[in-house]
Amino acid sequence: MDRPNGIERVLREAAPHQIFDALRDLIESRYGASQVDLLVADYAMTMLQPVGVLPHTRSPVPVHGSDPGRAFGAQEPHTVRNPDASTVTVYVPVSVRGDRHGVLSITLPDDGGGPDEALVEDFRACADALAHELVVAERDTDLFLRARRAERLTLAAEMQWQLLPGRSCARPEYSVGAQLEPAYAVHGDNFDWSASADDLTLTVNNGMGEGIEAALLTNLAVNALRNARRAGLSLADQAYLADQAIYGQYQGSSYLATLLLRFDLPTGSVEIIDAGSPRVWRLRAGVVEAIELEAQMPLGMFEDTVYTPQRFTVEPGDRLFFVSDGVYDALSPSGEKYSVRALVSAITETRLLPATQVPRAVLEKLLGHRGPGPSMDDALVLCLDWHGRQAEA
Fold it and tell me: Contact, 322 vs 278, CB < 8 A?
């Protein structure tokens, strides 16, 4: 799809904190828009926050039950006419490689016919270009990161969110969505991924401890695993070197439970190491089952631990769930644990949602079980849909 003339150049030439201003000016002048807003998803993925100079911004809108939320959830443009004001508003998702950032809202005079397909495609191209520039701009400005905050992050949560690769990603072979709770006060749970032409490496970490100590431990583990992965080492050697790094720092007093996986994209073969980890569930042909693994020692518990990968195979249509202990151990106000049966029910009930929406939906059910009040533990849900690689014609 061709982008509107000059949009990428305009965004590249704008200062990082002014990329949305530049896009808004272009859309207003080129298309006669009366109002252009950028709404970014907050850390909990429940609100869409207007971008502007704090505190002088418009009110946030909920993801669920709102017109911009509909575009955000479906990842498709959504058009709403306002006959009283003689305007029409087009809501367009702002996403890059499957990672959902927010929604671009464009209000135009309504001549009775509404925007045609070509105009909506122009707006989609504008939103796509903006999404790419947002990723780059966040290295140099806090404007968009500040706009995402519905409340203040704890320092530990700040460290954890900055460590993440994103909250979703997609390729023809797979799509991934993940979420952490409590979003604004998460301690040690985390996830990471990286893909090459033929491999997807995924780690899911169940952090130990609370506050800054938990965040520091997870930061050490994730960066040790990345260092080993980027050196081209095997999955077993990645686990071994991260184990050594953590043990060298803490001498066994702190350790990290983790799952390490490497997916072979052409075949669906999966190499996995269960290092005292979050658990894995598979939804295949409507049936939910746990993938049983040999439990090995958490990273950093003992010196010179040797890790042995296991293998299983995913098939097109499979959905994998990775869930931390904070889900299983969540207590209701009466002290009842969130059971495996409740989790299986949540997995089944969300089977028709795309992977990007599933973690939030499952966590909403968990929060309903737990009731009001602060969470005593982190909860992580990661969902991976496996599509498989299509044979070349």
Answer: yes
pLDDT exceeds 50 at position 169: yes
Number of H helices, E strands in the chain: 11, 17
Upstream peptide bond of 182 is cis (omega within 30 degrees of 0)? yes
Query: In terms of pTM, does the model score above 0.70?
Result: yes
Using the predicted structure, report yes or no on whether residue 238 has a pLDDT greater than 60: yes
Distances (CA, A) of 192 to 32, 38, 165, 277: 42, 27, 6, 14
What is the pLDDT, as a whole number, of residue 1?
42
**Listed residue (273, 389, 383, 274) closest to 319, CA to CA:** 383
For residue 49, give Cα distances in angstroms to 97, 104, 138, 152. 21, 11, 16, 14
Contact between 38 and 17 (Cβ < 8 Å): no
Closest to 254 measured CA to CA, from 289, 207, 309, 211: 207
Instruction: Classify the phi-psi angles of 300: left when phi > 0, otherwise alpha if psi is within -120 to 50, otherwise beta.
Output: left
Q: Residue 34: is its pLDDT beyond 90?
A: yes
- Measured between alpha carbons, how far is 384 from 195 in angstroms, rounded to an integer? 14
- Cα separations in angstroms, 184 against 78, 109, 151, 208, 370: 30, 39, 7, 18, 17
Does position 103 have pLDDT exceeding 80, yes or no?
A: yes
Q: What is the pLDDT of residue 393?
A: 54
Cβ burial 19-36 (10 Å sphere, 16+ → b, else e): bbebbbebbeeebebeeb
Of the ranges 27-41, 47-61, 315-329, which one carries the lowest mean pLDDT score? Answer: 47-61
Report the run of H or E that residue 257 belongs to, with start and end. strand 257-264
The chain-wide mean pLDDT, for the chain, equals 92
Site of tokens 């701009």: 137
**102, 74, 65, 66: which is closest to 352 by C-alpha?**
74
To 10 degrees, the CA torsion angle through 155, 355, 166, 151?
Answer: -30
How far apart, in Å, are the Cα atoms of 74 and each of 99, 133, 239, 256, 354?
13, 22, 37, 36, 9
Alpha-carbon Rg of the chain, whole angstroms?
A: 22
CA distances from 111 to 39, 315, 386 (A): 26, 50, 44
Confidence of residue 366 (pLDDT cuts 50, 70, 90): confident
